[in-house]
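Reminder to self: C-alpha cells first, then the designed residues, so the page reads top to bottom the way the pipeline ran.
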C-alpha cells in the first residue's frame, strides 16, 4: 500500500511545474514583503494557467496575459509584488470556443469553470482548481502547499462597432443595463421595479423583450451579456472589455485590433506566457504612459485567501 501511495505521490508531483525550494521563502520585492503563503498561492495559480495553456495549445485557442498579469510580465518578469491573481484575455470568438471545449478537457477532479451558466455573477469566467478549501496531502502536493481555492480569470474582448453613431447607441444601452443590474443587486428587485419602471420599460422596447418580475437580476445579466457581444469581428477595428469599463466610472479602454494580431512569449516567474505584440498600447491605455514606474496599489481584497481564512475560522468555531 505504501509503495503504491509513494508512486501516486510521485505522479502528482511530476504533473506540476518545477519550482526551486527557495522560491517559497519570504521575499522582499520592490520594497514589498511577499510572504511564503502568497508564494504558494502564486505557484498554485500558475498550475491552473498551465492547464489552460495546455487546452488552448491543443485546440488552437489564442489567449493573452491581461491587466496586472500583463503589466507584471512586462515590468517585473512575474507577478507585481502586491498582486495576488492571474488575469488573461481572449477575443470573444476564442472565449466562446474555450467555454465549449474546456469542460471536457480539464484535469479530472474538482476543477471547474465558473461562468454565467454556473451561476457566476460576473460577465467573465474563472477556471478554478476546486470550489472548496482542501488541506489533504494530494491537494497540497499538486498545488505546492496551497490549500485554497485558486483560479485564473479569463476576460472576453468584444468587437466595437465601426460606425460611431452605432457605437454610441451600443454603449449607452450597455450602460443602462449595467446600471439597472447594479441597482437590482444593491436595492433589490421590488424597489427597482417600483422606482425605475420607466427605465425597464425603455430597455424592453429597445431590445424587444419582456422582462419578468422574478429573477430580474439574472435576466438583466444575461441580456447585458448578449448586448456586449452582438457585433461580429470581421470588420471591427477596435476591441473592448466593456463590462470593466462600465464599472470603471465611464473610463473606456479601447484597444486597436491589430495590437492582438500576434503574440510572443516572455518570462513570468518560472514559465513563459503569451503577451500581445501591441502590449505597449494596451498598457498605456490601462495604466498611463508611465506604466513602467511601479505604484504600489493593493489589488481588490489582498490577499485573496483572507476571505477563505475567515470562512474556515467560522466553520471551526461552529464545530467547537
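Designed residues (320 positions):
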Amino acid at each position: 500500500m505504501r509503495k503504491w501511495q509513494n508512486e501516486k505521490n510521485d505522479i502528482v508531483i511530476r504533473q506540476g511545474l518545477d519550482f526551486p525550494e527557495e522560491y517559497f521563502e519570504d521575499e522582499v520585492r520592490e520594497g514589498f514583503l511577499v510572504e511564503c503563503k502568497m508564494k504558494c498561492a502564486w505557484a498554485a495559480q500558475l498550475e491552473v494557467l498551465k492547464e489552460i495553456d495546455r487546452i488552448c495549445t491543443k485546440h488552437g485557442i489564442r489567449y493573452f496575459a491581461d491587466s496586472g498579469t500583463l503589466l507584471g510580465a512586462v515590468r517585473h518578469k512575474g507577478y507585481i509584488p502586491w498582486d495576488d491573481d492571474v488575469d488573461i484575455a481572449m477575443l470573444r470568438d476564442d472565449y466562446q470556443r474555450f467555454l465549449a471545449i474546456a469542460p471536457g478537457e480539464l484535469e479530472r477532479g474538482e476543477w471547474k469553470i465558473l461562468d454565467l451558466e454556473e451561476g457566476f455573477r460576473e460577465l467573465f469566467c474563472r477556471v478554478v482548481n476546486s470550489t472548496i478549501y482542501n488541506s489533504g496531502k494530494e491537494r497540497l502536493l499538486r498545488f505546492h502547499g496551497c490549500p485554497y481555492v485558486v483560479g485564473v480569470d479569463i476576460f472576453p474582448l468584444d468587437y466595437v462597432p465601426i460606425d460611431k453613431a452605432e457605437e454610441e447607441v451600443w454603449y449607452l444601452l450597455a450602460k443602462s443595463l449595467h446600471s439597472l443590474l447594479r441597482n437590482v443587486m444593491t436595492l433589490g428587485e421590488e424597489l427597482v421595479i417600483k422606482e425605475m419602471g420607466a427605465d425597464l420599460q425603455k430597455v424592453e422596447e429597445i431590445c424587444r423583450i419582456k422582462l419578468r418580475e422574478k429573477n430580474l437580476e439574472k435576466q438583466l445579466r444575461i441580456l447585458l451579456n448578449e448586448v456586449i457581444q452582438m457585433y461580429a469581428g470581421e470588420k471591427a477595428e477596435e476591441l473592448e472589455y466593456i463590462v470593466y469599463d462600465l464599472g470603471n466610472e465611464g473610463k473606456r479602454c479601447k484597444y486597436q485590433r491589430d495590437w492582438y494580431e500576434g503574440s510572443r512569449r516572455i518570462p513570468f516567474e518560472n514559465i513563459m506566457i503569451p503577451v500581445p505584440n501591441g502590449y505597449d498600447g494596451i498598457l498605456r491605455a490601462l495604466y498611463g504612459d508611465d506604466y513602467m514606474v511601479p505604484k504600489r496599489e493593493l489589488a481588490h481584497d489582498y490577499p485573496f485567501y483572507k476571505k477563505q481564512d475567515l470562512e474556515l475560522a467560522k466553520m471551526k468555531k461552529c464545530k467547537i
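The radius of gyration is 21 Å.
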